[in-house]
């Protein structure tokens, strides 16, 4: 991301850009992230850079090390798969609890969020889809009626969000295919929750997270796979 005339990147925009570069391997593990260097690159003061780095530390993509400052974390496919496995277990549990405990008002809100996700998908609006999808999942966690469990779900989803975001910035067809399948999975989950079927809701959520994991891991590994060198002698 380069600063354009009249546009100053926010801390959130800087965070997203740096996160994408970590996820796709542009910034390899062990890379030091210097506030002054990033401020110069994005054309901003050190304040938004400092906030962006603070947010990145919370996701686990970077870490603070004594005498080294902020350094890109080593994240392998196995570690990423384990994070998704943990999220699947926790979100499955919250879905089951929410299916039994949601009020009529909460169910209507969940239906509204699903409609917003579908509208964003049909419009091809990646950013709106990501935002509404996040709300959909967090609403289910909040509706489970278990604050400690909700906190765990939100914290783990925060760690996975950069990987999901990067995957949704993939090639248009690949992105659309995943949004379409995600909406189908959401509908199965929604139907189970509206019916108050806790077992079906838990199963649907676990399968949905597993499907998301497969898509993100495929993107993650492909992004880090060495690309073939171009034939310099070709016409």
Low-pLDDT ranges: 1-5, 231-235
Strand order of the largest sheet: 1-3-2
Name of the CATH class of the largest domain: Mainly Alpha
If you compute it from the alpha carbons, what radius of gyration comes out, rounded to the nearest whole angstrom? 19 Å
Main pleated sheet: 3 strands, antiparallel
- Measured by DSSP, the beta-strand proportion falls in under 5%
Structural class: mainly alpha
What order do the SSEs take from the amino end to the carboxyl end, as H and E? HEHHEEHHHHHH
Folded structure, characterized:
The protein is mainly α and 235 residues long. It has 2 domains: 62 residues, Winged helix-like DNA-binding domain superfamily/Winged helix DNA-binding domain (Arc Repressor Mutant, subunit A), CATH 1.10.10; 148 residues, GntR ligand-binding domain-like (Four Helix Bundle (Hemerythrin (Met), subunit A), Up-down Bundle). The relative contact order is 0.13. The protein has 9 helices and 3 strands. The chain is globular, with a radius of gyration of 19 Å. The longest helix is centred in the C-terminal third of the chain and has 27 residues. A 3-stranded antiparallel sheet has the order 1-3-2. Helix 5 runs antiparallel to helix 8 and helix 6 runs antiparallel to helix 7.
